Every structure is written in structure tokens, then in C-alpha cells.
């Protein structure tokens, strides 16, 4: 079968660009097969619709000529999923929603570790110039940031009440935005923008200034040289099970449960 992992899918090499595109967009796990890698067929609602629209579901619903095997041996994991079970019981966020969210986060940790292993092996084999390496390297940013952003998100939950009005964060927000109320209104408005992504209050490491950002994808749009201070997940999985389309209610719940001490600890 050669060294091209996409040959396992029974595809002509001319399809490589197309599969590489799907690879870069799909959200799911990575599996190992015969020492090589293939994409595991785990699709969320958006990917299902996009794939079915171009006929790939005919392949998925049939008899794929793929056999998945376990990794040859257990490797030491570079990253370990953190335990956020302390958040169970958070007011306004059901246990089912949180457990699903934790599972999604754990998938990012698993995939980050797998990509580190796969990319490291490919580099040792001199495959750094291959299209497969390039696409996996691009994918690494998605998986790593998906892991890290969820950690920031979970860690700035679990509090009660508003920020300490005598603390440095409240004073800094008031100074940079004119008032805390102006900042909060803008932050919530960004969270209500159409689309999926993240709302992040960043601190510019050069000027120290605070800026609210909309981040569409995990690995796209982050301001260089800035520190994330407060992170809000507005991907559908973060709220739709409990709130449906009522995103504004979810954002209000988020603000009621911010761990302001943890958030202030990120300020430099």
C-alpha cells in the first residue's frame, strides 16, 4: 500500500487534495492502523450535513473497506486530561451537558497526544516534506487549542457573584473600557454574534491593555502576544442541550458562575 495513509481508503492519489481538505475541517478522533494513521469516522451535526451534501455519506453508510486496530503499544502521554468534576452541580448547567463537554475536551487531549506521536515519528522517518505531514501539522493547532481553550473555560467557572470591585481586574477593566458595565455589555454582545466560536478577553502583553475578541475556530484569529484572561465557549455543545437557541440565557448563566479569582490570577 506504500507510505500514503490515504491509500487505506482505497482512493486514487488524485483525491489527496480533497481528502486533505476534509481532514483539516473534520472534528473527531484519530485512530492508528498498521502503524499508520487514518481518520476515525466521528462526525458532529455540522460535519454530517456538509459531508452528506457532497455524497461522502454513501461511503460511510456502506461497507467501508477499513479495519481499525489498536495502537501497537501504549505511549507515555504528553498531556493528561484534567478532572473538572467539581463543576458538576453548577447552577444552570446540567450534569449531562457538563459530562458531554468534559468528554469532548478529553477527545482534544487524546488527539493532541496522538498527533505529537505521529508527527514525531514522521519527522524521524524524514517525511516532513509530505502533504500528509503538512495537513497533520495544521491539524495540531486545532486539537491543541481545543484542549487548552477548554481548560481555560472550565477553570474560569465554578464561582459565585461578581468580581471584587476592589481588585485589580475590576479596576483594569473599568480603566480600559470606561466602566465595568460597558465592558460586560460588549463581551455579551460579542457572545451573541451569529456563528460558533469563543469570546475571549485578552491582555496585550506589550501595552497591558484589555481587548475583547471573537475567535471563530480554535486555531484561527488569536491575537499574537496576548494573554487570555476570560474565556466563554459559544460552540453549540456548550449550551444547546440546556438552552436550545436561547444563547443569551446561557451567557447570563455563564456570568453567574465565573470564578473571578481564577480570572484575575491570569492578569499580568
Output the keywords:
mainly alpha, 268 residues, 3-stranded antiparallel beta sheet, two-stranded antiparallel ribbon
Proportion in β-strands: 5-15%
Supply the number of helical segments.
10
What overall form do the CA principal axes indicate? globular
CA-based gyration radius: 21 Å
What letter string, H or E per element, gives the SSE order? HEEHHHHHHEEEHHH
Number of domains: 2
The largest sheet, given as strand count, sense and whether it forms a barrel, is:
3 strands, antiparallel
Q: Tell me the helix content.
A: 40-55%
Structural class, by secondary structure, is mainly alpha
Nearest-integer average pLDDT: 81
Unreliable stretches? 1-74
Q: End-to-end span in angstroms?
A: 53 Å
Annotation, overall tally of beta strands: 5
Strand arrangement in the largest pleated sheet: 4-3-5
Structure description:
The protein is mainly alpha-helical. The chain has 2 domains: 5-68 and 98-155, no CATH class; 168-264, Iron/manganese superoxide dismutase, C-terminal domain (minor pseudopilin epsh fold). Helix content is 44%, strand content 11%. The strands form 2 sheets. It has a 3-stranded antiparallel beta sheet. β3 and β4 (210-215) form a beta hairpin. The longest helix is centred in the middle third of the chain and has 30 residues, at 95-124. It is globular and about 55 Å long. The termini are far apart.
